[in-house]
Amino acid sequence: MDKKHMNLIVISSPNQLKAELEAVTLLFEAGMQTFHLRKPNLTSAEIAKYIKLIPEEYTNRVVVHKYSKLANRFNIKGIHGANLQRIPGKTLSCSCHSFAETEINKMKFDYMFLGPIYDSISKENYKSKFSIYDLENALIAGVLTKQIYALGGISVDKIDELKLLGVKGIAVLGALWKNFEHDKNIDKLIKNFIEIKEKCNEE
Length: 203
What we know:
The chain is an alpha/beta fold.
C-alpha cells in the first residue's frame, strides 16, 4: 500500500507540568490541530481554569476528557469518553483496546483511539496488545478506517511502518511529554513535534 498523509492528535501528559501551558501554546503555533486534554486527577473546575489559560484562538482545537459539561461553557472541539452523550457541533471520541471494540463503537463515535499498538512510552509495563500480523489482517479486512487512531509507543520512527499497515491517524503522548517532564526543554519538545508532524504529512 502507498504511504499516505496521516492525521495527528496530541494527548496531554496526565501530570501537571511546569511550563506546560507555554508548551501547549507553542505546539498550537507549530501546527497542532487537535489537543486532547486528559488530566485524570484534576476536577472539572481545574480543567476549566486550564482551558481559560489557553489563547482563545486555539480552544476550538481542544478535546476534553470526562467533563462533557465544559463543552457548553467553552468553544472546544469535542469530548472524549465511552459513556458520554453526543453534544451537537462537537466531536465525540473514545478509547478502545481491540478491533472488536472499534467495530461495536464505530457508529456512535467520530473517531477512536486503539492501543497500545506498541509498548507504551509513558506507562511502564503497558505492553502492546497487537502484532504486525493483527494489523495486516485488519487492513485486509477493511477495519483500519480513518476513524481509528493508533495509540501507544508511537514515535517518529514508527510512522512509516504504520502508514504501510494502513493506519490513517496516530495519537502521541510519551513521544512528546516523557522527556519534557524531566528536562522542561520546550525547544526540544517543539522540535520533536515538528518532526512527527512532518513525517505524518509525507506522501
